[in-house]
Amino acid sequence: MRLVAILGHPESARAVGRAYLASTSTDASASRLVDQISRGLAGSRSKIEETTDTELRELLVARIVADFSEGLVVEVDGWILSSTEARLCALAALV
Distance of CA 23 to CAs 19, 36, 48, 59, Å? Predict the structure, then answer.
């Protein structure tokens, strides 16, 4: 999966993702996570497929910053993460 492939530290992301998934039941499927992540990007699922890796990273960073600005955050094992970060980590744990 392209979203997981661009993560810098996939093993760490998987560990965080497992902790996040243990604390929520609403984001338990890979398809749902991709839908939620892509909805937050400027576009849709097709945006993920149409952009370069660099552009996709930039879109994700912008969404993560926006999440913090909008208060869309979750706590995972004492860490405060944007909803997008948590979902990316959960996706890594599932695939």
Answer: 7, 17, 27, 26
Residues linked to residue 14 through DSSP beta bridges, in sequence order = none
Residues 91/30, Cβ–Cβ less than 8 Å: yes
> Do 27 and 84 touch, CB atoms closer than 8 A?
no
pTM over 0.70: yes
pLDDT tens, residue by residue, 30-89? 989 988 898 888 767 777 888 899 999 999 999 999 999 999 999 999 999 999 999 999
* CA dihedral over 57, 19, 76, 9, signed as positive or negative: negative
Residue closest to 86 by CA, chosen among 54, 64, 58: 64
Are 61 and 84 in contact by the 8 Å Cβ rule? The answer is no
Residue ranges in 1-95 assigned as alpha helix (H): 2-5, 10-23, 30-40, 45-50, 53-70, 83-94
